[in-house]
Amino acid sequence: MATPASKQRAAIRFRGRSFLATVLAPELPLADWLAELDKLSRRSEGYFASRPVILDVSGLAITKRDFAELLAMLFEREIKVMGVEGADPSWLGFGMPPSVSGGKQTEILHKPSAEPPKNSFVDRAVPSLLIETPVRSGQSIIFPQGDVTVIGSVASGAEIIAGNSIHIYGTLRGRAIAGSTGNAGARIFCQKFEAELIAIDGLYQTADDLDASLRGKAIQAWLANDKMNMAALA
User: What keywords are annotated for this sequence in UniProt (predicted)?
Assistant: First the structure.
């Protein structure tokens, strides 16, 4: 029997949407890595709240049991793993996060030096986002395409996440996360440094780890030899 046109089922609609996820790449021994993760969570409360996470275990010498225990321990810390990269396919089944791969990364634009360059520039066109108002506590500005510039301050509890560099023409009291898509050449600049946390290309430093002598000063931060470097701006 033919179905009346008025009762025909509507066509299924698929929509594309992009989300920015944090990638956690554990290191052995896992107990030590989890202890450092706990320190980060305590110093930057709420950082992982409602934030999608990809767990990257590529090349990590662990067993299926280790992997299951790691997921359980992350769940206890309210870290929601939405996908796993580099895991043995036999480890992933019903109730486990799905396997993911092929995440897009940004090309590293230049090799960072041990000292900030003087009177130099890179000739390139980088997409940028300009924020002309202060960023209030609880706000997140996420711009994975390029630079973020804030004309004003970033309050405690607020965060700026940029695929490239971050420029703040006021006080940075919240979190600044540059190079979020894999750009180790990204930098962070601010007029007055009072940050809760800064990060470049996944390398984090919290308030307790930062050089107290730089607080209240205009600074820049960059990576060299997989280490966070900071210096006052003249």
Answer: Cell cycle, Cell division, Septation
User: What is the C-alpha end-to-end distance of the chain, expressed in Å?
Assistant: 82
Residue 189 has, within 13 A of its CA and on its CB side, a CA count of: 13
Token digits of residue 138:
């609880």
| Structure tokens given for 217 | 């000063």
The residue among 203, 160, 209, 201 whose CA lies nearest residue 184 is 201
| CA–CA distances in Å: residue 57 to residues 9, 85, 127, 194 | 43, 6, 32, 34
List the pLDDT tens digit at each of the 234 positions of the chain: 555 555 666 666 566 555 667 788 899 999 999 998 888 777 666 667 667 888 999 989 999 999 999 999 999 988 889 899 988 888 988 888 888 876 544 333 333 334 444 443 444 556 899 999 999 998 889 888 899 999 999 999 899 999 999 999 999 999 999 998 888 999 999 999 999 999 998 888 887 888 889 999 999 999 998 889 999 997
Q: What is the largest CA-CA distance in the chain?
A: 82
SS3 track for 27-73: CCCHHHHHHHHHHHHHHCCCCCCCCCEEEECCCCCCCHHHHHHHHHH
Q: Which residue has the tokens 């050089």?
A: 211
CA distance 84 to 97: 6
Cα-Cα-Cα-Cα torsion 219, 223, 224, 230, nearest 10 degrees, comes to: 20
